[in-house]
Amino acid sequence: MEKIKIAVQKSGRLNEDSLKLLKDCGISIDNGKDQLKAFSSNFPMEVLYLRNGDIPQYLRDGVVDIAIIGENVLIEKGTDIDIAEKLGFSNCRVSIAVPKDAEYKSIQDLDGMRIATSYPNTVNEYFKKFNVKPDIHLINGSVEIAPNIGLADAICDIVSSGSTLFKNNLKEVEKMLTSEAVLAVSPKISKEKKEILDKLQFRIQAVLKGRKSKYILMNAPNNKVESIIKLLPGMRSPTVLPLAEEGWSSIHTVIEKNSFWEVIDELKASGAEGLLVVPIEKMVM
């Protein structure tokens, strides 16, 4: 049976989150220490551990069929590669930062300035919109040190919490784009492997939907049930079951994680009691 080849980052946070996603999808990876290739024992999949920046070319050449990769890397090196699914983790932004004591009023201040970055294409495309031409210094590695050693006047790099900028006495002045992990697809993927991809996507969507949702149960007097139901979005409609105590019902539903506390406050105000919140492992729609 054919196996779909998936590329994941060799090491780091994206590697860990990618493997966790596959595990949550029920895919077991036989991982040996320092292996650059591994196989799944229960799904037709081969995993290749690659450098993040090399993955777009491997996709383009058809060496791998799919990849879990940062969207920012595709924007820089793989705009011709399709994204099958946004995965909702490894969120970051690509930003311009300057020394904290530098005076900065607008992007025009960077015209002609030296910018150290691993994202030259992204920087050029962004600055074109403002008719600004910086002097780009390509650096692979720790770009945040460049202003401190006199190599550049500013940097362009990925930012998550901003702590690395703070430690290097830099301040963020321009947010160029936001990024998250995505499932990217080779333009050379075969029909047979596309069918495997469809099965994988089905599992991924079930896991992601579960991560974004909470299952809640509550008790309410029967005369409050109708008003409570109006507050609940649910999958289709809430489940209402009678309790052993006469005049009371149990209401079960699913709510979005992002609106959780607002909904809970409204439910309590409408008469709901004994609310129980349960995480959802997967949701198959």
Question: Could you characterize the architecture of this molecule?
Answer:
With 285 residues, this protein is of the alpha+beta class. 28% of the residues lie in helices and 33% in strands. The protein has eight helices and 16 strands. The radius of gyration is 24 Å and the shape is flat. The mean pLDDT is 92.
Fill in the keyword field for this structure.
single chain; 285 residues; alpha+beta; seven-stranded mixed sheet; five-stranded mixed sheet; 16 strands; 28% helix; flat
Report how far apart the termini are. Answer: 28 Å
- Number of DSSP strand runs: 16
Discrete helix count? 8
| Main β-sheet, spatial strand arrangement | 2-3-4-1-5-12-6
Share of helix, binned: 25-40%
Shape: flat
- Residue stretches low in confidence (pLDDT < 50, at least 5 long) are none
Quote the average pLDDT: 92
Structural class by sheet pairing and helices = alpha+beta
Strand content: 25-35%
Q: What can be said about the biggest beta sheet? A: 7 strands, mixed
Rg calculated over all Cα atoms: 24 Å
Helix and strand sequence: EHEEEHEHEEEHEEHEEHEHEEHE
